[in-house]
Design goal:
CATH class: Alpha Beta
Number of domains: 1
Helix content: 25-40%
CATH topology: putative 2-phosphosulfolactate phosphatase
Number of helices: 10
CATH superfamily: ComB-like
Distance between the termini: 37 Å
Largest sheet: 5 strands, parallel
Mean pLDDT: 94
Strand order of the largest sheet: 6-2-7-1-8
Low-confidence stretches: 245-250
Order of helices and strands: EEHEHEHEHEHEHEHHHHEE
Shape: globular
CATH architecture: Alpha-Beta Complex
Structural class: alpha/beta
Radius of gyration: 16 Å
Number of strands: 10
Length: 250
């Protein structure tokens, strides 16, 4: 029987478990929301890196690419864009390669790039991700692992919340999946919280940090649910549109 597990922190990951798994990374506030938004707006590819230095070195190799991301919530010096999903509009990113580095999200992604299949999710594409994973379940006997990026090594309420919504949608389409304890806990947690709102996300640690920086408007984008059909997939060192989605204007 296929299995579905949620890891509430990347540190729970056993590296030996990913080679034959379909992996989804979630960092709602804000990395996976911004990356998904960027590809929906017509971006060519998103290349995540674990450090600012690596991001700059990658940008030097890929001439014309955009440096994007944050440290302590704000774009490092010389970056073209930060990590605000509001910034990734078609006028700025259509056809562009974007080099991303963030405090938590890209670090989690770097841990799982050897997965059999790697995708990213957020509230904006949660049903689309569930559809893709459920469709694959019919043809591949492969475990699904959903990884929450967390915040500075601690559980992130926003990520676990989104993971629970993803579990719920996957189960509707593939009810025979065997849930691990982390998946069952995320499912129950999300059911108790319901649908996210900017106000509810503002009560999370990550949301409060954004509000302290005057970036609370980003939470309105992070709280959108199912308005995008893009399901980014890892291919040759970058996230690109998976090919199963229609075109979105982000």
């Amino acid at each position: 029987m296929d299995s579905l597990e949620v890891l509430w922190l990347p540190q729970e990951l056993a590296p030996s478990s990913i080679a034959d798994s379909r992996v989804v990374v979630i960092d709602v506030i804000r990395a996976t929301t911004s990356m998904t938004t960027a590809l929906a707006a017509g971006g060519q590819q998103v290349i995540p890196t674990g450090s600012v230095a690596a991001a700059r070195a990658t940008a030097d190799r890929i001439r014309g690419s955009l440096l994007c991301g944050e440290r302590n919530g704000l774009p490092p010096k010389g970056f073209d864009l930060g990590n605000s999903p509001r910034s990734f509009i078609s006028e700025l990113v259509a056809g562009e390669s974007m080099i991303f580095t963030t405090t938590n999200g890209t670090a989690a992604i770097e841990m799982v790039i050897d997965a059999r299949e790697l995708r990213i999710a957020c509230f904006r594409n949660v049903s689309a991700v569930a559809r893709v994973l459920s469709d694959a379940t019919d043809t591949k006997s492969t475990p699904i692992i959903i990884i929450c990026a967390g915040r500075n090594g601690r559980i992130g309420m926003d990520d676990a919340w989104c993971a629970g919504h993803l579990v719920e949608r996957i189960l509707k389409r593939s009810p025979s999946l065997e849930l691990g304890d982390g998946a069952q806990a995320a499912y129950t947690f999300a059911a108790s919280l319901g649908r996210p709102t900017p106000e509810s996300l503002a009560k999370t640690d990550a949301g409060r940090a954004l509000c302290d920086l005057g970036l609370d408007e980003d939470l309105g984008h992070c709280a959108k649910v199912d308005d995008l059909s893009v399901v980014p997939i890892w291919c040759d060192g970058a996230f690109v549109k998976g090919g199963e989605e229609g075109a979105d204007a982000g």
